[in-house]
Every structure is written in structure tokens, then in C-alpha cells.
Amino acid sequence: IKRITTHILQEMKGRGEKISMLTAYDFSMARILDAAGIDVLLVGDSASNVMAGHETTLPITLDQMIYHASSVVRAIRRCLVVVDLPFGSYQGNSSEALRSAIRIMKESGAHAIKMEGGHEIRESVARILSAGVPVMGHLGLTPQSIYKFGTYSVRAREEDEAQKLIEDAKLLEACGCFGLVLEKIPADLARRVAEALTIPVIGIGAGNFVDGQVLVTHDMLGITKDFQPRFLRRYAELYNLMQGAVEQYIRDVKEEDFPNAQESY
Ligand code: KIV
Ligand code: NA
């Protein structure tokens, strides 16, 4: 199998082939997603919500991200693995940012890192890139800044925030980022960014005029139940399926149906 690289993602944008990306935090799920042919797996700091049950992405630690990332890396054969730098591991200064990125690359075996923000993190981005670590940007609704925004609603509806986002996107490309995630912004703005950049732009809640799409796997599979934003398409209802299976198991145990003779030694 030919492995996906950042260069292949660039070629895909060049020929207009859309890039598919999903989150993964563990071995078993990453196996399934890689076998299905996903192009990019993101070990997102959404693990803080989905795996650990926190309300925001802020509490997850670098050690925990490395644990998730190393589990994912052991499962995959083809896809590119990108890992979020968690809140607090890169905002302070560029040498701390570089140290965090190197720990992820060394200890997990992942292929790239992602970080939230534009001009305010440009030194850290440049320093990590100069160490040979591919960096993906993330602009728009950046969840690590949720307490600054105060709400999870659509970003950059106003022209001043849209202008800043376009400038930040160009800056991240100029720094040498291999790709950019745009989260929850108007489709027209995402189109302008995707057209202005030569690097692939991956959207989540950013419309269909970008170079690829990313969703949180547990959301698109319907494992999480109460999260229903407009941008989310559910491809399965696994919460109900799994609860039903477990209820059946409980009944079978209580009624002494399980295990039967064939299931016994
Ligand atoms: O952590 C995450 O899952 C993400 C995606 C939503 C882009 O950053
Ligand atoms: Na994230």
C-alpha cells in the first residue's frame, strides 16, 4: 500500500481530488478507518470531550495526546496521522512549542502536528517547521479559545474577522504549513481561502468549496448523541445500536440463555 504523505495531499489538491479526514483516538477505531481508506486521521484534542468527558478541549495534556497518538499509529498502514498540540503546550513560547512537537513525533510515531491560531503563533509554527516537523494550521472556530469567543457559533461572519482570517491563512502558508483546517465559518469565506492558497484547506462546518472535509468520527457514527450542529451528517446511529446489543446481552445473562452449550467447554 502506498502511504499518504503531505506531498500526496498537495497533489490531490492540484488535481481536484477531495481529501477525506476523520478523528481517531484509539487502536481499534483507527484500524477500521484506515482499512476503509481514509486519507488523514486526526488525533484531535477533541479526545478531551469524546474520550475523557470534559466539557472543553482545554484539560487534555500532552502526555494524554501522546498516548492516544501512539495507539492510532500502531493501527494504521496507509493514512497520514496528524496530532493536535494541546492547549498550553505551545502558546507560551516557541522553544516550548518545539519541545512539545518533538515529544509527539518521537514518542508516538505520528507524521505531523496541528495547532490553532494565526499570526500570534507564527514563531512557534516556524520553529517547529524548521525542525522538519510538518505543521497543519487551524483557523475559524478554534475550540482552545472558546472562553475568548464565549460561544460555539459560526466565526468570521463580519468582514474584519474574515479579513484577519484570510491574512492568517496566507501567513500560515508562507510559513510553510502543509495544510489548513477551517472550522465553522461561512462557505463563501472558506472558498476564498481555498482559492487563495496552494496548500490543501480542509473544512468542518465550512461548506463544500474547500479541498477536503473532516468530522469527529464519534459524531458522524452517531456514538455521541446530544451533539447535533447543522454541519454534522450522521452516517450511522451506533449509540442506539450499541445500547440495544448491550440490553440483549443483559437479558441473555439474566435469563441464563448465555452462554449456551456450544459456548461452553
Ligand atoms: O480536535 C478535533 O477533533 C479537531 C477537528 C474538529 C478539526 O480539531
Ligand atoms: Na482540535
From TrEMBL:
Q: Where in the cell is it found?
A: Cytoplasm
Source organism, top-level taxon:
Bacteria
Instruction: Tell me where it mainly resides.
Output: cytoplasm
User: Which keywords does the record carry?
Assistant: Cytoplasm, Magnesium, Metal-binding, Methyltransferase, Pantothenate biosynthesis, Transferase
Q: Which SUPFAM superfamilies match?
A: Phosphoenolpyruvate/pyruvate domain
Q: In which pathway does it act?
A: Cofactor biosynthesis; (R)-pantothenate biosynthesis; (R)-pantoate from 3-methyl-2-oxobutanoate: step 1/2
**The keyword Transferase belongs to this UniProt entry's keyword annotation:** yes
Pfam families hit by this protein:
Pantoate_transf
Q: Which cofactor does it need?
A: Mg(2+)
Q: Which InterPro entries does this chain map to?
A: Pantoate_hydroxy_MeTrfase, Pyrv/PenolPyrv_kinase-like_dom, Pyrv_kinase-like_dom_sf
- Gene Ontology MF, one: 3-methyl-2-oxobutanoate hydroxymethyltransferase activity
Q: What is its EC number?
A: 2.1.2.11
Binding of Mg(2+), residues: 45, 84, 116
The similarity annotation says:
Belongs to the PanB family.
Subunit architecture: Homodecamer; pentamer of dimers.
Q: What is this protein called?
A: 3-methyl-2-oxobutanoate hydroxymethyltransferase
Cite the source lineage: Bacteria, Pseudomonadati, Bacteroidota, Cytophagia, Cytophagales
